[in-house]
Design goal:
By secondary structure, this protein is mainly α. It has six helices and two strands; from the N terminus they run H-E-E-H-H-H-H-H.
């Protein structure tokens, strides 16, 4: 059958508030204490990306800006840098204004991976221009790659929960086989 996408504004608002609270708490408590090299996990980026991939549209751009602003206020870096980057990231990930988690795991992970690497790279390149570091090796090996790796790994549990939500709405469990039919084609056997 054809699945309808029903929007429950209160449920999505509650989910967004819970997601924001969890990511804020993790950004404040976990991020400063766990690092590889000079890289730290960026939960503000994860929140902005999950919101953009789930809801998209203008609200995702606004959420991305404020998530970046919170990140900037918690860090000792220039205010507005991460806010601008997460605004652009949220626009790019949410421009289709639909639930991109419905596209599946590979699509979501590749979109997040590409967008987050560019945002993290842009952030650290701007920081080197501001005199935060003078070495390209330090920039790439101790800042960009560790931050990206940890942020990507931090995104996986959130992605899993969102993919599970989509699968539950479709009446399947994550990893269920589609019996050889592609999801976007009609199954004429049941007509």
């Amino acid at each position: 059958g054809i699945a309808m996408q029903i929007k429950d504004a209160n449920k999505s608002r509650r989910g967004s508030i819970v997601l924001a609270a969890v990511c804020l708490a993790l950004q404040v408590m976990i991020s400063p204490n766990i690092g590889m090299g000079n890289g730290r996990i960026n939960f503000a980026l994860i929140f902005a990306a999950v919101y953009a991939l789930t809801y998209g549209g203008k609200s995702a751009v606004v959420v991305g800006f404020f998530a970046g602003l919170v990140y900037d206020l918690l860090a000792t870096n220039p205010i507005g840098l991460m806010a601008g980057l997460l605004t652009i990231l949220s626009y790019a990930l949410g421009r289709e204004e639909r639930d991109r988690f419905a596209d599946g795991t590979v699509s979501v992970l590749s979109a997040f991976g590409t967008g987050s690497f560019l945002a993290i790279g842009g952030y650290h390149l701007a920081m080197i221009l501001l005199g935060d570091s003078s070495s390209v090796v330090d920039l790439l090996m101790l800042r960009i790659l560790p931050t990206f790796a940890m942020t990507f790994l931090g995104f996986l549990p959130f992605a899993y929960l969102e993919l599970r939500r989509v699968a539950k709405a479709r009446g399947k469990h994550v990893g269920a086989k589609s019996h050889g039919l592609r999801e976007n084609y009609y199954d004429i056997r049941n007509l």
